[in-house]
Amino acid sequence: MAAERGSFPAFAESRYAEMGEPPLRNATVTTVAPTGTISMVANASSGCEPLFGVAFTKVNVLGGKSLTQVNSLFLKDAKRRGVYSEELMERIAENGGSLSGIEGIPDDMAALYRTALEIPWEWHVRIQAAVQRGIDNAVSKTINLPGDASPDDVRAALTLAHRLRCKGITVYRSGSREVEVISTKAKAGGAEAGAGAADGATRSGLDDLCEPPTPRGRKPYTVDDTLWGRLQPIDRPETLCGITKRIATPSGTLWSTLNLYDQRPFEMFCQIGRAGTDIYAFTESIARLISLALRAGVDPSEIARQLRGIGGAG
Length: 314
What we know:
With about 325 residues, the protein is α+β, with helices and mostly antiparallel strands. It contains 11 helices and 8 strands.
């Protein structure tokens, strides 16, 4: 192709020219792309990623059912060696998808099927760097860090990746998002205890609940019974002016319109995806609630503070 159409524009300044390589049409020809969902469908490994978990859950962030994935190689190996049972799989799931400490698992199997969080972050980076040496473009790889990882750990991972000449790096601290695309089954002791406490409060009745607490750094609550539950939004004029912005997201293009009234934010319209999908309905619902709050006189910065930082899978 280079002979017919010429090399890529920066070929003369590239390392290929320095090494005396013949002209190339494409600046890059190889990469390790992100293949998370595709690899699950194909029942194959995901690029150069280690095993995330012997058993883990794949969340459908656009709605629908979540899927539980069990490593097929482990299943075959466990059955071949006579250690497989449904009870064993339940214990592995309760153990965060790890074989570590599971009774009945041979030591060599536990060592072979080590999961992403059991491998030190330094070796995640070094494996990526080893693959990067034979790849033109970037390598898709997640450096998994435990939930208690410090900012210094993140800094060290980024610094090592730069020193080893990785073209890109993704660092993820376990549990840092409320909704994770893939996750292992967590032990629910704390959550169950919280649910029990809530049930107890419900049974005791509203009259037995304590007085409303005082927000930290603010004055105590004062409730005007003449206004409580009676605040009404301003009626919408027939014509309003505003701005529309197009925002690229992992789930598609988001169209967001903010209309003004008397030079103040007054209402919002948001649209993403196709009509009838969960994400379309959810986005429209949030925009309606924002509009209601704005028309009722709620401070826009307070609305932004409540919504800012809410994480998702994309």
